[in-house]
Structures are given as structure tokens and as C-alpha cells.
Amino acid sequence: MVLASALEMFFNAQIPMSVKFIIDKALIGHNERMMLLILMALAASTLVVSSTSLWRDYLYAKIVGSIVTAVRQRMFEHLQQLSMDFYAKAEIGDVMSRFSNDVAAVEVGLASGVSWGLQPLMDLALSAALVFTLQWKLATLGILLCPICVLGPRLLQKRATEANVRKQEEESGIMSALQQTLMAPAVVRAFGLQEPIIARFTERNKRLFGASIRLGFLTSLMERSASIGTLLLQAVVMGISGYMAFRGRITVGTFASFQALFVSLSYSFMYLAQYLPSLINAAGGVIRIEELQQLRASVEDAPGAQELAPLKGAIEFRDVVFSYTGDRPNLDRVSLRIPRGSSVALVGPSGSGKSTALNLLLRFYDPTRGAVTFDGVDLRMATAASLHAQTAVVFQESFLFNTSVRENIAMGRPDATEEKIAAAAKAAHIHDFIAGLPEGYDTMAGERGSRFSGGQRQRIAIARAVLRNPEILVLDEATSALDAANEHAINETLEQIAGGRTVVSVTHRLSSVVHADRIFLFDHGRLAEQGSHGELVKADGLYAKLWHKQSGVHVSEGELRATVDTEWLSELPLMKGVSTEALAEMAQWFATEAFPQDRAIVQQGDAGNAFYILVRGTVEVTREEDGRIEPVATLEDGDYFGEMALLSDQPRNATVRTLTPCVCLTLARELFERLLAREPELREHVHAVAVARGVQETQLFGVVNCTRYPLVPGTYSVAERRRKGIN
Predict the structure, then answer these.
(1) Which pTM does this prediction carry?
(2) CATH number (domain holding residue 673)
(3) Would 33 be classed as within a structural domain?
């Protein structure tokens, strides 16, 4: 590269030097032969330099492409090494911006490096040397004045670099905002968030606009100051050299050559100054790329980490303490044992710690205190690769890559043969479906597996796990996002492939783990209970309560029809003391409704007109305050909401949105009022509960004509509830 640029440098210097000889020797001396020799030399040089410059440009394009490709590769490989806590906190748009905007800035800076950086620098050096050979006094004066060209860019460089980094940060913020909006269009529309989201985007866009103006002005100022300095320098040198030629101190040819060389020298300064903005952009990109590269994984193989041998004894949690944030423990002194070949389940309410325990078992995180061991070996002293080689996971969301079905299954074992891939698909009961597709195993799965249903995606994910032939099969809410028919079929498939393996299942749906060898119940980060299903139900503790809550509601495996037991209804605070006959009649009035994933069941601010029992699925309860959406709770099978809608028309104070496909039982208020009209005792009880909950008399439905009754025993007024801290 330097040699090819040197040839061009000599050619660039050859032209102004040739001017001296053409004027002094050929023109003034009328030397035709000299003129011809000079012109032939220039023509030959042009041919040689053009050829070498083309070769240099091709070579440099290859070098730049190699560098940028290596940078992307290094960034991508580094991302694969980072721990799960990075992905829990990182903004996807920001990471993508580093791959697009920042790498592009580096590429532009590199691509201009020869023509706007290296070549002008070499031309500058040679031109400076040549002007000294022509007239050293004049050259000394010109060189002393050259800093005028770079004074402005030098003073502005730091501020421009900071402005560039700021602009790139604002661009990544825009990317993040756009990415979040594109990923959740249903949430935006269902919550009516278009206006606040547009307002936030507008604010971000204005900040980017301001950052762009600042950077654009500073870079333009750098270029302008360099141009003004160059023109000023040329004017000064031309005036002095012209005066010297006029007085006969230098020849006309020397004047012309000196002027041409000095113009070349000053323009080299200007090119370098104009290259600075690209260099600053590239520097800002490098800073952000290196920020990513300098992130260290919180979970890494320890020096001298050993390969885990196949599990022979048991997996153990030994007094494990763990916290995601360091503020409060998500797991608190958990000890449990999972013998090889056993089937165990980690259960508990949402946020109880069961998924956190699974994350530690898979070593996505390391314990804060205590240890997770395989046959007595602390996982922190073993290689992650040897652990994951023994495990296969079927997640709740069966993510498929946008590639062929064959490749998606083969990710479980990339070197698998066609026969083994087909055998895994058969074990997952998906082979016939795949074979019946027009393109068979070559069928593209689509973005996130969008070409297939939830059950089909789950079976392909199971085939991927089966192909891995794992010692330990991990099921992370593997069927919670499926309907009843698919769940039953998938559970049967999982039972068939689980034989002889250690199976660890994390679920909130207790009906799927009744046959587990051992069930570990988590509550608020502690291991609250453990035992078989029968033992835990008999113990009549928290597990028994959860079981009763979930087993009181049912959904058929065939046609979509849900039911609720009268005993379950009798446990509702609103239904305490209601006769069995009235509850049985009410149970018949519930309607079955199915809701797809990411759908609002009730919307904050809407009038309440129905009570909901969540028979199957998971929902998130959120409340919007000051334009921010705050999570309130996560509800699962057997939970209920909207009880106040049976009492009054007060607006819904929260939004309930499905996280998975859900089946609900709903009771309309007018049906409930019909029951109140016939049941005096229920009417009195409901009136008391309503008053206790602060419902105004004028807001009550069905009980407006009732006599005011005192609070029933065990209930409190609004003021008393606040004072006692009762929700």
C-alpha cells in the first residue's frame, strides 16, 4: 500500500517540478527536444501510476472489507460469550446500532484512509522537501505558516468527537424505541399508547436533531477553518514568491514550480482536515464497539475448569443464595437433591424462584452463596460446554430460526445424519406433518417459526432436544402456552421420550406434574415444601391450596368448554355463606372465552361488567400512571379478577393482558343481579362486602334498595384497611 502510494506521490510531485524545466529550459530556451522528453516522461508516469493506483485501490478495498468483517465477527462472537444478565438489561436497538451505525462509521473512515489520509500525508512530506530544494528561505516561511491550516481543526477536534459519540448514542436510542414499538404493535394499539409513544419518539428525535446539528456544524467548521487557512496561506506565499520573482531573486520557472508545489502542499493540509470528520465518526464508532468488547461475562469458565463426566449420582443445591440485583435474594438458602434418572418438578406461584433455580442449574447465572453441584462437582469449577452437552431444554416459547425445519432440528446436534433427524422428528410425533409439507424438511420456518402453529413449533423444539440425546431433559413451562388438546398430546410425547433420563420440569400448572417422583414448591425464594403429589396434598400446606385453586376449574381436551366447581366458588370472599344450590346455578351461568396471546382482556378505564376466572394461561396485570405502564401482578391458572365489576360500574383500575393463550370463565353482572334478586341472604352479604370495600351506595347494582347493614364479621372499613395495611 505504501509503495503504491509512494509512486503516486512522486507523480504528484513530478508535475509541478516539470513546470520549472518546461518554462526555464524548454519554453525560454526554445528546446523542443527537452519539451518532448518531459512530456513523454509525464505520459509514461501517468500510465504506470494509473495501473498501480488501480491495483492499490483494489487491495485496499479488500483490506478494509477484511477489517470490517473481522470487527463484526469479533463483536458477534463476544456477544455469544456474554452472560444472561447482559441480555436481561441490554437494549436490542442499542446493540444493533453498534453493528450497523458504528461499524459503518468505521468502514467509511477506513475506506477514505488512503485517498484522504495516507496519500495527502505523503504528498505533504515530499512537497515540503521539494520546496526546500527550490528556495529554502521561502519554504521555511511557508512551513512556519502551515499550522494556520490545522489550527481550527485541532481546536475543534475534541468537541467534535464528543458530539459524534453523543449523536451515535441518540441514534441507538432511536433504534431501541423503534425496535420496541415494532415488536409490540398490539400492546400499543390495545392500550391506546400511540400518542405517548409518538411523544416520546418525538422527544428522542428532537434530541437526535440537536445532536446532528451540533456535530454537523462542528465538522463543517473544521473543514471551513482548514479551507480558509489554506487560502490565506496560499495568498501569503504567492505574494512573497511573486515579489521575489519580480525582483529577480528567483526564476519564473522556480516561481511557477514553487507555487504549484505549495498549492499541492496546502491542499494536502486541507484534505487531511476534511478527512478529520470521517476519522472522528470512525473514532466514535470504535469507542462504542470497544465498550461492547470490554464487557465481561459474569459467568465464565474458571481457570483449570474440568470437563463434567456423565451424571451418575445426583444434582444438588447446597444452601444456595442468589440475587439478580443484589437488593434482595431471589433464592434464599435453598437446598435440594435431584437423583439421576428421577423426574422432579419445580413449582410455585409467579415470582417464587422456580425459574431462578432452573437458571442456576443450567448455569446461566452463578449462586451468590452456596453451590450447585453435579456428582459433588461445583458447576463453577466445570466447563459450561460439558454441562450443556448433557442437557437439552424445551422452553415455553419454542423459538425457531428463520431457516429450514431440518436445520432447526439439527441445531440439537449439527453433525446428525438425515436418518437421525427423521428419527427425532418421529419421536416428537412431527415427522408425518413435516413430510407432508410441499418442501418437506427444507420448508422455511419463517421469522420466529411463524409458519407453524404453537403445537407444531413445540414438537419441532422437542425433536431438537431428542436429537441431542441428553442425559438431563429440562422442561421450562413447556406446555403452558398450548391449548388443552395440544398440551395433553405434548405431555404424552414428553413422557415417552423422558424414559431413563433425569427430567427437571418447571411449571405453574400442577396437573402436569402429579406423577413426578418429587415436587419442590418455592415461595418467595424459599423452598417451602417438597415431596410427592400425594404427600403434599395430604400435608394441607401451600401446595394443597394451589392444587385446590387449580383443580377447581377445568377445561375439556376436545371442544373448548371450561367449568368451575361449586366448592371453588364457595371460597370466593364474595360468595362466602351462599347456598350450595345458588352456587351450582351460578356455575352454569359462566361462559367460556378464549383469548390469544398478547390480547387485552380488560382495559384500564373501561366500565366493569363481568367477573373473570382464569382457567388456563398466564396474564399480566398492569396500571398506567403518568404515561408509564407499571406491572402490578402476574396471574395464572385458578386466579380471578374483576370481582368489583359484579358490585358496581366503577371503571377498571388496571389492564389485564394475556402473556400466553388463555381460557377464561366469565360471569356477566346482569346474570349475577338476577341471582341477587332471588337470594336475600346473598344480597345482604354482597351489600356488606360492597360497603366494606368503599363502593358508594349510588354505585351499587342489584342492592340499591337494600337496608344498610353493618359490616360483616372479619371485614374492615376503607380507613381501617389502610390503617392495618390490608389490600
Answers:
(1) 0.68
(2) 2.60.120.10
(3) no
